[in-house]
């Protein structure tokens, strides 16, 4: 007997969950979403992401497990499926001890540890010799990671789902239980998987007031500096970041950024953009020709996205709303891509529990 499943949301979490579920021929998947790949909207976070693999989960946490479980899949895709828009990229992470007392510094403290857990996960990990560190940098590490061209990868995920028989439809719901009646077969869905990210704050039947945004602003340029780079913080403010990553397949280089909690502003702040560009050039002079400043950057666009943060962490759990079985998978903050498969494995496991109970109930 077929399992009718609705996945609500077409960001990286929704698409990854749908992709894994669609690999079982017994599952009939309908993906319903307000925004689809190709759209650019402030409330649709996934297209704005860098995106790369820079683990931030604390050792021993569920977050760490999600990131650890995601790496092998991203590596396999980069190895075997160049059409997915993921490529390997050298990476440098620089830590300043003075940043560790800041809120942002604490959020990213695991990434900049001298001896992090992920050293045995990523490729070619090694510490940067102290004589190669810039003034003010206390330690650094170098490794090979991946960078994702989201404009290619999100459609690739859609393609994999379509190949497995999934159906995509645009839809907007005021209440999550209504999604169960929108399955493409015309039958009521057995399960609805909620991957609506920040919209879970206002979606009826969920109304999660623990959700809040962390505004990220980026500049996309045509300049290619080579390796990815990131630092533990900046002197421009506790909620400003420094990262550089060049997307696969001509996706441009992302210069960032910011981590402005509870800031919903969709309009790029040009003063912030100038600070982002200046500090990226300072840490990576190869971005521009010798002697040039920000005028040496060939700008594609400025962008703003809202990371879907959740107080208490990501929500992956079973629920029942209006008689409809729900599995939640949302609240991933800024690590949606690098934990995407790990989180989706957990969500799929919960979906399977619900379907098994359904089957036993009919026996």
Automatic annotation (TrEMBL):
Any single Gene Ontology cellular-component annotation: peroxisomal matrix
Localization in the cell: Peroxisome matrix
Cofactor needs: FAD
Enzyme Commission identifier(s): 1.4.3.3
GO MF assignments: D-amino-acid oxidase activity; FAD binding
Keywords tagged on the record: FAD, Flavoprotein, Oxidoreductase, Peroxisome
UniProt entry tagged with the keyword Transcription: no
Ranges of residues in domain FAD dependent oxidoreductase: 5-344
Residues involved in D-dopa binding: 243, 334
InterPro entries assigned: DAO (IPR023209), FAD-dep_OxRdtase (IPR006076)
Binding site for FAD: 196
Catalytic activity: a D-alpha-amino acid + O2 + H2O = a 2-oxocarboxylate + H2O2 + NH4(+)
The keyword rRNA processing is annotated on this UniProt entry: no
Gene Ontology terms: biological process: D-amino acid catabolic process
Similarity section: Belongs to the DAMOX/DASOX family.
Protein name: D-amino-acid oxidase
Organism annotation: Penicillium vulpinum
Taxonomic path: Eukaryota, Fungi, Dikarya, Ascomycota, Pezizomycotina
